[in-house]
Design a protein that fits this description.
383 residues, mainly beta, 16-stranded antiparallel β-barrel, 54% strand, globular
Length: 383
């Protein structure tokens, strides 16, 4: 790691050590009628490097497409979360992100009507109920990034389950309506979404994205096991010769499981996704909807394991982390796709306030391409 990387890491560590004890939430208001208002938030400062800082300009040996800085230090997230309850049965959440410094991004803005424990109706902007890794809070994800991020490589869809789901618009945030609830250890989610990109606010056509998810939690004592199955139908719009809009659907399914919890001891998350690639035809090019070309088949997988070990003095806990992920954007080809490895460690100071260190290594299936890597360190302050 460069001197700049060590300097950034030391600066981040000093900053976190100077933060006082934080609370999970600040309750602003509460009354006897069931009205509540609370505020919480987080910010993350990240330092990262990339092997693309000195790659050879030979397209045959490297997946890098641009030269990048040796080391970067930036604000990854800066979020404020406002939660509330009205008359004991209507929940709401409002979450902006200020990490762009000079602009604000709206993440969540929804209301949820709790008719009963078995049926709640949610409307607004929120996460689609697909991809268990995306559904894990950014303050608790085991690796610094959900995807494999190597600056200089424009897209790692082929080797990252997260890039597969978000790039195909199966996961992440969207505007829509969702019904969820549960009976005993079983929980379900059924959603109709716009099907647009995560930063868009309007629908592109008359079709809706449909997502269903079911999860069962097995009681294994201190090591609960949750298993979820989900399916998604994504609407793809195109223009016919006469100018009218045409809607087609691509499907994908997911299986996701989690063993253990985030507070202590071991935790393992594993997921597998298979379905159609809405961005590619079976010949490997951009699909022409006017020719009714068949969509390519794609798959992605990921396993993350960690073990949180409590400490008696100084740090609250330490947690080694290991991730393996991979995939193939087009199953008709052998030399696309690849896999990636991420070893790391989390140092917890208190609660979710921590310093995390990761090193992403990418291994393309194309034997002519060398592996690339990115070292990352990140401070998280959570309140």
């Amino acid at each position: 790691m460069s001197r700049i990387g060590f300097g950034a890491l030391g600066l981040a560590l000093a900053a976190l050590l100077n933060v006082g004890q934080a609370h999970a939430q600040l309750k602003v208001y509460s009354d006897e009628d069931g009205n509540e208002l609370s505020i919480s938030g987080q910010f993350q400062v990240q330092q990262r490097t990339s092997s693309c800082s000195g790659f050879p300009f030979d397209e045959g040996t490297s997946a890098c497409e641009e030269d990048v800085a040796v080391s970067e230090l930036f604000l990854r997230r800066a979020r404020l979360v406002v939660r509330g309850k009205l008359h004991g049965w209507i929940d709401f959440k409002f979450q902006p992100d200020f990490s762009r410094i000079n602009s604000v991004t709206l993440l969540d803005a929804y209301a949820r009507f709790g008719f009963s424990p078995s049926a709640r109706l949610q409307v607004g902007r929120f996460k689609r109920p697909f991809d268990g890794f995306q559904l894990t809070s950014s303050s608790q994800i085991l690796t610094i990034e959900r995807d494999i991020d190597v600056p200089g490589i424009p897209s790692l869809t082929a080797v990252s389950l997260d890039e597969l789901t978000t790039g195909s618009r199966f996961a992440d945030r969207d505007v829509g309506i969702m019904l969820d609830g549960g009976v005993g250890e079983f929980h379900y989610w059924v959603a109709a979404m716009n099907g647009s990109g995560s930063r868009e606010n309007l629908d592109a056509n008359d079709g809706k994205q449909l997502i269903g998810r079911g999860q069962y939690v097995f009681d294994l004592g201190s090591m609960p096991l949750s298993v979820a199955l989900a399916g998604a139908l994504v609407d793809e719009s195109s223009e016919r010769d006469d100018g009218s809009l045409k809607t087609e659907y691509t499907g994908s399914f997911e299986i996701f499981s989690q063993l253990g919890g985030f507070n202590s001891g071991p935790i393992v998350q594993a997921g597998f996704i298979y379905g159609k690639n809405p961005n590619q035809n079976r010949e490997g090019g951009e699909r022409d909807p006017l020719l009714d070309e068949p969509f390519a088949n794609q798959y992605g997988w990921q396993v993350i394991g960690a073990y949180k070990i409590p400490l008696e003095s100084g740090l609250e806990a330490i947690s080694p982390v290991l991730r393996l992920t991979g995939g193939d954007p087009n199953t008709d080809f052998d030399d696309d796709g690849g896999w990636a490895l991420t070893p790391g460690v989390e140092l917890f100071f208190f609660g979710r306030n921590k310093l995390a260190i990761n090193w992403d290594f990418v291994f393309p299936n194309d034997a002519a391409l060398r592996s690339e890597n990115s070292f990352k360190s990140q401070v998280q302050v959570y309140f």
